[in-house]
Amino acid sequence: MKITVEEAITLLKSGRVIAMPTETVYGLAASIFFPEAIANIFHLKGRPSNNPLIVHLGTAADITLYARDLPQKFELLAEKFWPGPLTIVIPVIEDTIPAIARAGLPTAAFRIPDHALTREVLIKTGPLVMPSANLSGNPSATSVEHVEKDFGSGFSVLDGGECEKGVESTILCWDHDAWVVIRLGALAPEDFAPVLGYVPVVIDATSAHQEKPLCPGQLYRHYAPKAKLELVEKISVNAVEAIVGFSDRTYPEGIRLFSLGSSKDPQSAAHELYAVLRRLDDENIAHAVVDMNFPSQGLWLTLRERLQKAATSL
Ligand code: TXA
Ligand code: MG
Known about the structure:
Blueprint: E1 2-3, H1 5-13, E2 18-20, E3 27-31, H2 35-45, E4 54-56, H3 74-81, E5 86-91, H4 99-102, E6 107-111, H5 116-125, E7 128-129, H6 144-151, E8 157-158, E9 170-175, E10 178-183, H7 193-196, E11 201-202, E12 228-232, E13 242-245, E14 256-259, H8 266-282, E15 287-291, H9 298-310
Parallel strand pairs: 1-8, 4-6, 5-9, 10-11, 12-15, 13-14, 13-15
Antiparallel strand pairs: 2-3, 3-7, 4-7, 5-6, 9-10
The structure holds threonylcarbamoyladenylate (TXA) and magnesium ion.
């Protein structure tokens, strides 16, 4: 059910959970001043309680209210990439962000979304936690239709059309003496080099720090349609029901193509990714092959990682 900006503000200020657009994906929003609303987010999504949420702010200046310490070059990162698809994990003054949102960690993740409607709401409501607006494990939602598919047509959604980027924010975390990428996303590791003076290392949160993962969310099944995905470098003739591939390539005849757009355009592939994965289920596809013949740099690396996760059934 679509709601107005005014209704969104009223609902959030009275402790309700709604869905809102961002430039990356839709989020399920609750005010940080209502821990019971935050608990409701975990319940609605079926999200494990040890997977912390991102705190979304309307303005960067607010960060000083929460930060215990701002790591080196934090200001430069914030200045260059906020508002935008960068999430930064920093140590916080613990009683300023409810423990349930942080999953008990001494840190919290922050970002300022680059979306006019949602910033307008944030300025009026104050900080909001916003995980992606999908049931845990499902592909993220990049349209109102996707949100309603997961949470029902009566669920309150602020309509911002299709999300521009289509994949989540990139998460940076200060790890001892350098910034590291703990989740690939809409910004590529290389994008940070001009500000940091180095390309931050991408940490595989599932293997490097198994006992105390840097990014707990990375441990879980993610982005996965019901369809079994088979990732291949070359599509053979005896392939299956459906191909997830590119509009400028030729594939064996008679097999349905679910197109990610041009193989020269990672932005359009990112924009289409979750819609394509969701469409496979809408069309009851049981088995699809995915054309993985694309680069491993920049945004392509994020797409590769998302597809690898989507193909893993844990
Ligand atoms: O683009 C995005 O970031 C979207 C939109 C709605 O803003 N949000 C999003 O939230 O992707 P979610 O909950 O789906 O993913 C948040 C990720 C999880 O993997 C979680 O483990 C990680 O952020 N995270 C949150 N707080 C953290 C912390 N203190 N330390 C490490 N990782 C954290
Ligand atoms: Mg998510």
